[in-house]
Model the fold of this input.
Amino acid sequence: MHKLQRKLQTDHLHLLRLLKCLSHEIDCYDFDSQRSADLAVILSALDYMTVYSDKWHHPAEDIIFDRLLEKSVEQSDLIQALKNEHQTITQETHKIHELFKNVSEDCVVSANELLTSARHFIMLQKQHIEKESEYVYPLMDAAFSDEDWNAIEKEIILQNDPLFDESSKKEYDHLYRFIVDLEKSKQE
Ligand SMILES: [Fe+2]
Ligand SMILES: [Fe+2]
Done:
């Protein structure tokens, strides 16, 4: 497997971990929740998705998906739909980020609106990853030669993952510890 494909697949695993954590915090807005949400964690998670997933992961996939489309692979309609979803997800990340920024600035946002929008957003992201993992990523090995990957590599500027890469955890340190502690508490 090419290293770019591996990195993008690792991104998916990381994003699923993050979405689980986000979902756990969003549940605090449910009427019968006994906990209060850690707003810093929610804002940090949405910020990370804006600066890494929406600015690097999806654009990198767009370059790869365009090349798959040139090869007239099966699933072309789905690949096009997933490319369109990248734009939808980016818009939705922005919207939901603004919503929670309003909450942090003490603007009145109903718990119901937060719950509905955030759960919809999480579902959209999860389903997107599932479709890519199941139907699109398995096509890459057969579709791409070394020359294809070399050409793709020239178009994609590699970027560190600012949350999950060992070397660059500082900015999202609180969020990272929160994810790891939550995972530990669920295992116990
Ligand atoms: Fe994607
Ligand atoms: Fe993806």
Notes: Residues 12, 57, 61, 129, 132 surround fe (ii) ion (ligand 2) (CB under 6 Å). The mean pLDDT is 94.
